Amino acid sequence: MPLRHRLLAALVAVTWGLNFVAIHLSLQQFPPFLLVALRFAVIAVPTVLLVPRPRVAWRWVLGYGLGFGVLQFLFLYLAMDTGMPTGLASLVLQSSAPFTVLLAAALLRERLSPRQGLGVLVAVLGLGGIAVHRAGLDGGATLLPVVLTLCGGLGWALGNLANRQARTDAPFRLVLWMSVVPPLPMLAVSLLVEGPDAVAASFRGLTSPTGLAALGGLAYTVLVATLVGTGLWTWLMTRHPSSVVAPFSMLVPVVGIAASWLVLREAVPPVELALGAVVVGGVLLGSAPARRRPAPQDAPAPVPAVTAG
């Protein structure tokens, strides 16, 4: 994986890490299932009207949309709405990386090198250490929000596999058409679970400080996290094995925890900063290009023997 592609993957991690703060702000105004529907509907409507569908089998578009768009955010937004701290949510959701690597090895027969396996293991140990520390703090996440976020990570992993199998030559259009899948099922879930009254009430008070912050968070989620971040991620997944790209998502909680501390004043103990450095080290170890052995120099051509005349 070239250095410039690794930098792009790191940029995606930054945009996604900041997105957890944006989601937190949006959830102050909109119920979680409706917010997922709105997030993708804003993209889906102009996509259907203006963007040609990529030359990809429908099953991969649907699989990508259901895994990445429906399952991931249904469980993530529900977890955050039921008490999952923003920084911890950004951490636990990165279970998608080991899920992706393991599912790709099992279902797509992608080979996992010892270095990649060690890098994932180191990063998982760092993530696990942060999770254990967070779970022991006062006011930490309960078991249910953690389990819901893990389900979101599994949904993301399934979407990664569909994205990889699509092998599109138009990754940005695939992202746009993936966004067509979630709005209708998520709106149906919102009306059934949250109710029409809650949906209607969420559109009142949009000019208040809370409403404006929620709209700003939604705009960031749509324009930066989805269009830019997911577009770059899809482009990278079409060019490199899942086991190489997916570990970069483990950088997201480092950004998410830092952003939640700066914006939401969530405390970040020194031990979590140290464990975040472990996560970074694991990602770098698992994604670094393999060293090429220098080719042996050609032996000098033998000098032909001179025969006597």
Tell me the count of domains.
1
The low-confidence runs, each spanning 5 or more residues with pLDDT under 50, are 303-309
Compute the gyration radius: what is it? 22 Å
Task: Report helical residue fraction.
Answer: over 70%
SSE topology string: HHHHHHHHHHHHHH
Count of DSSP strands: 0
Q: Determine the structural class based on helices, strands and strand pairing.
A: mainly alpha
Beta-strand content estimate: under 5%
Shape by Cα distribution:
globular
Separation, N- and C-terminal Cα atoms? 60 Å
Q: What can be said about the biggest beta sheet?
A: none
Oligomeric status: single chain
Average predicted confidence as pLDDT: 84
Keywords: Membrane, Transmembrane, Transmembrane helix
InterPro entries: AA-Vitamin_Transporters (IPR050638), EamA_dom (IPR000620), EmrE-like (IPR037185)
Protein name: O-acetylserine/cysteine efflux transporter
Family: Belongs to the EamA transporter family.
